[in-house]
């Protein structure tokens, strides 16, 4: 039997980590129906209501007159399987999510159970359910930015506080910062559904939707992938405070404004591998002088 040759098969089936060949062999095995019935039974379990005082009185009355219990003998393998599933599900209550976090100035690549990949930009947080990935392909981008390359299949979703993105084999980018939100499609097709109004927008390659003061606007893009994947951040007519925030995320610095108008618009970009070059390319064209503190973490800004 398959499960006798591989004692990890049950755990990997529960977490959705079986290959297509392993999953097919397991579902054709003799014990698959028994495992499935146990799972379905647990899913249907509802905590019963009861009278606490009545139950307490009944227990005290029956303590003095214990009855002989009926012995039910189970097949040993069935007992082990049931116990294993209950233990796994109990652990799932405490460890039911997988967290992916990138630090300030760090990028991270995540490979999902179906082979789809996510590249996280700096200061980002992504999470998913630990178990049953093949039937529950839902991710939550808590904050930050991620570029998703999704294998073809059904049901892949990325959830944010402002809405969700549904895809079917595509490449797209989601940016969910504190003061900026954007979904951009670089290949295939995605559907963005707004969290509050439930309005749905279909995006194809070369289109993006961004959050504005009045709602969500649709724009076009010409590049083949986000520039941050190549180590550069590019902006077009963007308020300076958003540019400075991105510098903070990439380099771990903080700015002291000293009267600088952070609502001025900036068009240009900065690299991610040289702080002095990045500061110069952003600030000098805008007539802003800067001094880097002794700790190399504080940047003092002044106007000329």
Please explain how this structure is put together.
This protein has eight helices and 18 strands. With 304 residues, it is an alpha+beta fold. It has three domains: 2-94, no CATH class; 97-220, Jelly Rolls (Sandwich), CATH 2.60.120.1440; 232-303, Phage tail protein beta-alpha-beta fold (3-Layer(bab) Sandwich), CATH 3.55.50.30. The strands form three sheets. Strands 1, 2, 3, 4, 5, 6, 7, 8, 9, 10, 11, 12 and 13 form a 13-stranded mixed beta sheet that branches. The chain has a three-stranded mixed beta sheet with strand order 15-18-17, with no helix packed on it. Helix 4 (32-43) crosses helix 6 (76-94). The longest helix is centred in the N-terminal third of the chain and has 19 residues, at 76-94.
Give me the secondary-structure topology:
Layout: H1 2-5, H2 9-14, H3 20-27, H4 32-43, H5 52-63, H6 76-94, E1 97-102, E2 108-111, E3 117-120, E4 124-129, E5 138-149, E6 156-159, E7 163-167, E8 171-177, E9 180-187, E10 189-194, E11 200-204, E12 207-212, E13 215-220, E14 232-239, H7 240-251, E15 254-256, E16 265-271, H8 275-283, E17 288-292, E18 298-303
Parallel strand pairs: 5-6, 15-18
Antiparallel strand pairs: 1-4, 2-3, 3-5, 4-5, 5-8, 6-7, 7-10, 8-9, 9-12, 10-11, 12-13, 14-16, 17-18
Helix pairs in contact: 4-6
**CATH class wording of the largest domain:** Mainly Beta
What letter string, H or E per element, gives the SSE order?
HHHHHHEEEEEEEEEEEEEEHEEHEE
Instruction: Return the average pLDDT rounded to an integer.
Output: 81
- Unreliably modeled segments: 1-5, 42-48
Structural class: alpha+beta
- Put simply, the count of helices is 8
What characterizes the major β-sheet? 13 strands, mixed
**Might you state the CATH topology name of the largest domain?**
Jelly Rolls
**What CATH architecture label of the largest domain applies?**
Sandwich
Structural domain count: 3
Helix content: 25-40%
């Amino acid at each position: 039997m398959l499960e006798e040759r591989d004692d990890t098969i049950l755990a990997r089936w529960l977490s959705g980590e079986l290959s297509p060949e392993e999953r097919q062999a397991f579902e054709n095995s003799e014990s698959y129906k028994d495992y499935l019935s146990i799972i379905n039974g647990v899913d249907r379990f509802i905590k019963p209501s009861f009278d606490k005082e009545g139950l307490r009185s009944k227990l005290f009355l029956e303590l003095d007159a214990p009855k002989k219990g009926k012995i039910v003998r189970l097949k040993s393998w069935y007992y082990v399987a049931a116990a294993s599933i209950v233990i796994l599900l109990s652990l799932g209550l405490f460890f039911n999510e997988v967290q992916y976090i990138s630090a300030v100035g760090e990028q991270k690549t995540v490979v999902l159970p179906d082979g789809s990949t996510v590249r996280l930009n700096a200061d980002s947080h992504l999470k998913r359910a630990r178990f049953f990935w093949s039937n529950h392909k839902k991710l939550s981008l808590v904050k930050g930015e991620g570029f998703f390359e999704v294998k073809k299949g059904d049901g892949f979703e990325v959830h944010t506080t402002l809405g969700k993105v549904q895809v079917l084999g595509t490449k797209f980018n989601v940016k969910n910062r504190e003061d900026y939100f954007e979904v951009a499609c670089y290949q295939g097709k995605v559907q963005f559904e707004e969290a509050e109004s439930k309005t749905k927008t279909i995006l194809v390659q070369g289109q993006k939707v961004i959050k504005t003061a009045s709602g969500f606007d649709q724009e076009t893009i010409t590049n083949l992938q986000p520039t941050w994947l190549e180590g550069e951040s590019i902006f077009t007519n963007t308020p300076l405070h958003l540019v400075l925030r991105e510098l903070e995320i990439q380099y771990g610095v903080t700015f002291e404004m000293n009267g600088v108008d952070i609502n001025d618009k900036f068009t240009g970009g900065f690299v991610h591998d040289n702080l002095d070059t990045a500061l110069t390319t952003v600030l000098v064209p805008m007539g802003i002088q800067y001094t880097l503190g002794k700790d190399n973490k504080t940047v003092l800004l002044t106007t000329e």
